[in-house]
Amino acid sequence: MAAGYSFVAVPVALNSVLLTVAALAYNNLTGRSYPHRSHEPMHPHPPVSQLQLTSADIDEVLTDYGEALDISRDDLHKLFRELLGRAQRRALSRMFEK
Fold this sequence. Notes:
Elements: H1 6-30, H2 55-65, H3 73-97
């Protein structure tokens, strides 16, 4: 076999480079970061009372969920705190409207 390993290595390397360049171009055109880095909310709504949510709680829920999610535990925790804070603020504003 005259071509040797380059017969396999060159197309694989070339395709890998092309896929990486295409992925980076897509991410830059769509404004997405790679790797994903979470950001702080523009208008944070921290919960009124501090909820004691642990990493173990999140791990248990993720295990019970039974599927792999493309989001980190820290991002889930931030998302949950933001949602809880918004719900609490909405409930407080309704109390004062009455």
